[in-house]
Amino acid sequence: MDNLLLMLAPLFSSKLLLVLFFGTLFGLILGVLPGLGPTTGGALILPFTMTLDPLSAIVLLTSIYCAGTYGGAITAVLINTPGTPAAAATCLDGYPLAQKGEAGRALGMATVSSTVGGIFSVVILVFFAPILAQLAYEFGQPEYFALAIFGLTMLASIGEGSPIKNLIAGAFGILISTVGKDFMTSIDRFTFGINELTEGIGFIPVVVGLFAMSEMLTQSTLINQIFNRIALKAIKLPSKDDYKKTWKTILRSSGIGSFIGVLPAEGGTVASLIGYSEAKRFSKNPEEFGKGSIEGIAGAEAANNAATGGAMVPTLALGIPGSATTAVILTGLIIHGVRPGPDLFREQPDFLYGIFGAMLIANILFFIFGFFGAKIFARITLVPNKILWPMIFAVSVCGTYSLNQSIIDVWIMLFFGVLGFFMRRYGFSVVPVIIGLILGELVEGTLRQSLVIFDGNWLMFFTRPIALTFFILSLIALAFPLIRSKKFRKKL
Amino acid sequence: MKNVQKQKRANKSLPFFFRDEFKVSLIIILISVALLITTFTFDIVPPILNRGIQPATFPKALLVLIIIMTLFIYYLATKNPWKVEKKLPRSFFLTLSSFVIFVVVSKTLDFFLAISALSIFVSYCWGEKRLFYLFLVGIIFPIIVFIFFETILGLRFPPGIITNIYYS
User: Fold this and answer.
1) B47 and B8 in one domain?
2) Phi and psi of A181, rounded to 5°?
3) Cα distance between residue A367 and residue A116, in whole Å
4) Which of B86, B122, B148 to mutate to test the interface with A (most CBs of A within 10 A)?
5) pLDDT at position A63, please?
6) B5: distance to nearest CA of chain A, Å?
7) Is residue B115 part of a domain?
8) Which of A102, A217, A374, A438 is 20 to 30 A removed from A152 (C-alpha atoms)?
């Protein structure tokens, strides 16, 4: 009961409500604009959160996360281009339905299913994050090491694209985290005599570079692309018939999305694809999928928004991000001096339940904004890229510079922009780099501390039951893509 | 699907050293080897200060892992070639060169001037010819961003010919 009251706290704070309002609005705008999204937006707004107290800062980031994930659906339905990668599956049925003159119905279903998925995942978050945090009390350094390894292998196995390429990208992310002074012995590593590198490579330049700048380069290859925009008259709430058709799909996808979100991977993107394919598998009319099926929209949208709450579970309970955007939120927590993990649940329940409550309200807010303002948000996509991207560049440069007031950070951002472009071009996802970078210190630190505990005996890792379980799960995760492809080939 | 297969066939018909998978794998391996050699120059700590492993051991292990996995993706690609990517358009190279111009101008002349120059250059190269919009993205918007960051975050931008005038 106390926790429920703590969750309602944001409702009684005008400051938090204002932060939620602007966060949701900003998140929606970011979600609508193709190429931008909650990850880039969160990274760009991170310096501004320094002017806020920790709770307001994290509420701002989480509301951007929730609203940004939904915002991608507006562009997916109206211009057949996902505003965020998580909305890719929404294009498959959203746009064909819009072409039939039912854009309002498609967006109505996307809005309702996103809201239900989002709220469902917050409920999961409220119940499971404390349980996971309790379990984490049993974790020592070896268990955390095994858990981080499990996280990285999961990223490879269920992330988008080639598992080995994902592993390379993850290993590269960890390698970046080793740049600078070794945090245990103060020995310089990969600094090449550059003083600015002794502090290491910051998270923000890498995120903004890999997401925003690489997208700018991608957009430079698409300047002649013409979008067929479909006019939106008004959003329509789903009819009784639509609800009858989709309620099972929405609930199933909400469950799938929350589960996938908990696993460290590309959160909403993978969740929406699985949610969509499961909706098709269980549908009475699978032949309608790809031609404007209302169930397809519901399946994809409920799943990608459900992944938001799911991804916050390991982020808050263990300090291990469930997606790229939660990696930004984790950075926000650390910048504000909040250490995620089991102690946070014991010592600052008001802070945590405030976040949970804010996420719940953000889901309701984006429903209202989406329902009444989708037409206006859709117009944002009319801003031409030749105007939009130079502006994004200016904000990215100033945002990156502002955190450490370092011009080197800006150059690092540009370097990662170019690198990210070529990585994406050749099928390497950039998300594992981000997760690897944020987990790098944890992986190395826990490994080295474990070896101190074990007196250098590596085999001792396997005498710890929890660590051993995570190692076995890692092996299964690595073998999973192989089994999946063999099964797939057999089917063919 | 047919297009992807066609692109894959086209890639297979090229000599191996022209294929994307070879070039990408080679670049990753060369960089990894160079970094691996660098790890041998890291200081070695005496056993009393050594926390579990030497500071160079962990990056070394990562680099070896990256090299092995890269060889593996190349091996897989010999069986199932990557699709040939389209040639990059002129606008990409212009945008890329604008990044270089930005670095040079921000280092030698002025940070604000660098943002302004890049914004106008990119906008123009991407097809914006109207003076008002070039002025908007190149002058008005960067000024708003500058003032916004300075006022809200109390940020001080690096010195330069324009920034110095502003601060004076």
Assistant:
1) yes
2) -70, 130
3) 10
4) B122
5) 93
6) 16
7) yes
8) A217
Residues B64 and B99 grouped into a single domain: no
Judge contact between A28 and A369, C-beta under 8 A: yes
Look at A9-13, A86-90, A439-443 and tell me which has the smallest mean pLDDT. Answer: A9-13
A404 CB near a chain B CB, below 8 Å?
Answer: no
Total structural domains within chain B: 2
Rounded Cα distance between A321 and A319, Å, is 6
Token couple for A409: 């950070």
Q: Which residue of B has its CA nearest to A413?
A: B99
Contact A363, A257 (CB under 8 A): no
Q: Look at residue B43 and tell me if it is in a domain.
A: yes
State the Rg of chain B over Cα: 24
Residue closest to A329 by CA, chosen among A274, A414, A416, A261: A261
**Per-residue pLDDT at B7:** 57
State whether B162 and B94 are in the same domain. Answer: yes
Q: What is the pLDDT of residue A383?
A: 79
pLDDT for residue B10: 55
pLDDT confidence of residue A487:
59
| Shared-domain flag, residues B67 and B109 | no
Residue A144 has pLDDT above 90, yes or no: no
Helix H or strand E encompassing A110: helix A103-136
Query: Is A405 an interface residue toward B (CB < 8 Å)?
Result: yes
Residues of chain A contacting residue B141, judged by C-beta atoms under 8 Å apart: 390-391, 394
DSSP class per residue in A169-218:
HHHHHHHHHT-EE-TTT--EES-TT-GGGGG---HHHHHHIIIIIHHHHH
ipTM of the complex: 0.89
Read off the pLDDT band of B96 (50, 70, 90).
very high
Instruction: Assess A458–B contact: CB distance below 8 Å, yes or no.
Output: no
Q: Are residues B74 and B108 in the same domain?
A: no
What the block records as the tokens of A179 is: 């740049």
Chain B residues close to A393, C-beta within 8 Å: 115, 118-119, 122
Q: Is A412 on the interface with B (CB under 8 A)?
A: no
pLDDT of residue A266: 61
* Per-residue pLDDT, A159: 62
- Mean per-residue pLDDT of chain A: 84
Interface of A with B in 327-366 (CB under 8 A): none
What is the helix, strand, coil percentage profile of chain B, to 5? 70, 0, 30
Count CB-CB contacts under 10 A for residue A287: 9
* Cβ–Cβ < 8 Å for A107, A376: no
- A389: tokens are 């991207």
Q: Highest-confidence range of A48-52, A322-326, A400-404, A414-418, by mean pLDDT?
A: A414-418
Most confident of A20-24, A318-322, A371-375, A454-458: A20-24
Both B75 and B131 in a single domain?
no
Q: For residue B5, what are the CA distances in angstroms to A141, A162, B45, B84?
A: 48, 17, 54, 10
Tell me which residue range forms the domain holding A100. 2-491
Predicted structure pTM score: 0.85
Of B39, B49, B51, the CB nearest to A448: B51
For residues A442 and A341, is the Cβ–Cβ distance under 8 A?
A: no
